[in-house]
C-alpha cells in the first residue's frame, strides 16, 4: 500500500510538473497584412522560429498573415490596447505626426539614409514617443521596399501625366497630400481590397513596393510599372509595451535581438523579390517605364514646409536631411 501511495504521489508530481511546464510557455500573437509569399511574411515566420529556438520553447509566436486580424491601422490599435501583442507595419503617425515624415515622397534618399535615420537621435525620439503615447515599443525595423507606381491604361512618363489620375493610396495623410499636389485624385482603399478596385476600374492605378505588387498579383490588372522610386520604406516590428515589460529580461533581449537579426534576412528577401517580380511583370506583358523622376520631386517640393507648418515640427526636416 505504501508503495502504491508513493507511486501515486510521484505520478501526481510528474503530472503537476508537466502541466506547469506546459503553462510556462508565453504565447505571442503577431499579425500583419501581407500575403503568404511576401518577404515580410517570410521574415515574420523566421522571427517566430528563431524566438522559439532561442527561448528554448518558452516563447511561441503565432503569425497571422494577410489581414486576418484586421487592417494595418486596426492591428496597430489592437497592439496599443493590448488585444494583440505584436504587429508589423508603419502606422505610428496615428499617435505622433513625426512618423508621417518617412511616408513623404523623396524625404528619404535611399536605404542607407533610412537605416541611419532609425539609428540616429531622431529615430530614438520617435521610439520613445511611441512608447509614451501609444504603449507600443519598436523592436526593430525591416526594409519594406521602394514604392513604385502602376497604371492600368495610361502611360505615365512625368508628373504632368498624373493630372486627374484616380490613384489608390493607403489611408495615410502624406500620400493623400503628396499625390494631390502632383495632380492625381488619391483614393484611400484597404490593401486587401485593392485588387478588386483595380480590376473594376474604381481606380486607374496604385503605388506599392514591387514585392507587394507581385504578391497581390496586381500585374494581372495593370499594364505599366512606372519606376518613380518615390518612397523608400521600412516597417516597424512592434510589441505592446505593457506586455513587453511583463516579460523576463532574457525574453525581452531575445525579442529585440531576433528582430534585429532578422532585418538583414528580410532585406535580402526583398532584393530577391524585386528582381524576380520585375522579370515576371515583363513576362506577363507589363511595360516597365523609367519616368522623369525630377518632375515628381519638383511637384512635391513644398511638402516639407506644409507638414512643418501644420504640425510645428521645427527643425525636424533639416535634422532628417542632415542624417548621413
Entry summary:
The protein has helices at 2-24, 39-54, 72-81, 111-119, 121-134, 173-182, 194-200, 210-215, 241-245, 249-283, 293-299, 303-311, 316-322; strands at residues 26-31, 59-64, 86-89, 136-151, 166-169, 185-188, 205-209, 224-240, 287-289.
How would you characterize the overall build of this protein?
This protein is of the alpha/beta class and 324 residues long. The protein has one domain (26-322): D-Maltodextrin-Binding Protein, domain 2. Helix content is 49%, strand content 20%. Strands 1, 2, 3, 4, 5, 6, 7, 8 and 9 form a nine-stranded mixed β-sheet that branches. The chain starts with a helix and ends with a helix. The model is unreliable at 4-21 (pLDDT under 50).
Largest sheet: 9 strands, mixed
Distance between the termini: 78 Å
| CATH architecture annotation | 3-Layer(aba) Sandwich
Number of helices: 13
Amount of beta strand: 15-25%
CATH superfamily: Bacterial extracellular solute-binding protein, family 7
> How many strand units?
9
Helix-strand pattern: HEHEHEHHEEHEHEHEHHEHHH
Anisotropy-based shape: globular
Structural class: alpha/beta
CATH class: Alpha Beta
How many structural domains in the coordinates? 1
Query: Which percent bin holds the helix content?
Result: 40-55%
Provide the low-confidence segments as ranges.
Answer: 4-21
